[in-house]
Amino acid sequence: MVDTVLNSSILTSNQYRTQQNASALAEQDLGRDAFLKLLTTQLTNQSPLDPMDNEAFVAQLAQFSSVEGIKGMQASLENMVSGMRQEQMVSGANLVGKKVVIEGGSFIGGNNEDSVGTVNLSGEADSLSFNIYDSATGELVYSETKRNVNAGARSLSWDGRSKDGSVLPYGAYTMTASAQVDGKTIPLQVTTTAEVRSVKWNPQLQQLALEIGEGIYIPLTAVERISN
To answer: What predicted TM-score, i.e. pTM, was given to this entire model?
Structure first.
């Protein structure tokens, strides 16, 4: 019986620390009720011969109203952001299984799978060079050059093999392109196509990220076009 009473009345170390932290936070938080109680006490105990100035009283009320307004605005903004995030996640779920055209040349390929990169030439070029790099190591694994290329959309279909014909492993690769025009090298923007596997929220960028490969994500802003 004595042990039962002692156990029910004595706090453990963790319980004591939790209780003390909660008390400290409660003391630091000056809420609406505490502010009104403080203001009422101040008015009750002021000297009749030297009462609070009207300006000071109005200033305190205005400060209280401002704090309350900011708290209300913050809560509204947090609710709005949370609602937008949920709406984007629901919309993003509709992208799963869709094909997306990606700027920057990143794609998932290798293992005898065909991958296509596209560039747009504003005019004729003496040559057009495509280079493919392993995204993890930066190693050049394939290159191809076409001569006397006309203006317009031009593409390269890569079969996932190196220049010597060996099969490269499935993974993340990057395609770059450049054109030779009148002896000048002009870098070109490459677009590639990938299938969306899943979507998740990126808290750093505050936007959706699309999974285009095993654990490989791109920001939604990198998508140029979406198709079935």
So the answer is: 0.55
